[in-house]
């Protein structure tokens, strides 16, 4: 059997590093940086890391945050902004030497959340 995506991404340590890089990329991204200007970045990094631990097959109670619709409701997030988040995720995966198969799985999982985030 294939190992869980959680293990293949390096467990809590690997995923935390990737999540930190994704959020740093958001803050520096011309298209979406403004969305993160007034948010508590360490808190968002923690939420992103634990969300991914739980979503990839790590501890099921790692993530204690809101569901995706509640977290993004009323923000009026556009399709282009959503793509910018995927771009930032891909950059972070590359930076952390994640293999192509794992990159594809992460991108596919993120894309699947689109309807819970764009325009909700
Ligand atoms: C698949 C894509 C995405 C995932 C998995 C995701 C995940 C998350 C998570 C887990 C949180 C924390 C929720 C909590 O604190 O309970 C969050 C918050 C946030 N998200 Fe997303 N998000 C995505 C896309 C986006 C997009 C496209 C934008 C806008 C460009 C965005 C903007 C934000 C902002 C600004 C917050 C912080 C809200 C605050 O703490 O005040 N997200 N997101």
Automatic annotation (TrEMBL):
Q: Which UniProt keywords apply?
A: Heme, Iron, Metal-binding, Transport
TM stretches of this protein: none
| Gene Ontology MF: a single term | metal ion binding
Provide the protein name: Globin
Matching entries from Pfam families are given as: Bac_globin
> In the UniProt record, does the keyword DNA repair occur?
no
Query: Record's superkingdom?
Result: Bacteria
Lineage, opening ranks: Bacteria, Pseudomonadati, Pseudomonadota, Gammaproteobacteria, Pseudomonadales
Q: Which residues bind heme?
A: 72
Q: Does the keyword Transport apply?
A: yes
């Amino acid at each position: 059997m294939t190992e869980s995506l959680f293990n293949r991404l390096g467990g809590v340590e690997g995923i935390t590093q990737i999540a930190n890089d994704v959020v740093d990329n958001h803050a520096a991204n011309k298209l979406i940086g403004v969305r993160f200007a007034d948010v508590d970045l360490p808190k968002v990094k923690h939420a992103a890391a634990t969300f991914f631990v739980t979503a990839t097959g790590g501890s099921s109670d790692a993530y204690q945050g809101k569901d995706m619709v509640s977290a993004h409701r009323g923000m009026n997030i556009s399709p282009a902004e959503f793509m910018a988040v995927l771009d930032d995720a891909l950059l972070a995966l590359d930076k952390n030497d994640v293999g192509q198969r794992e990159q594809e799985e992460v991108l596919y999982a993120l894309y699947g959340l689109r309807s819970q985030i764009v325009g909700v």
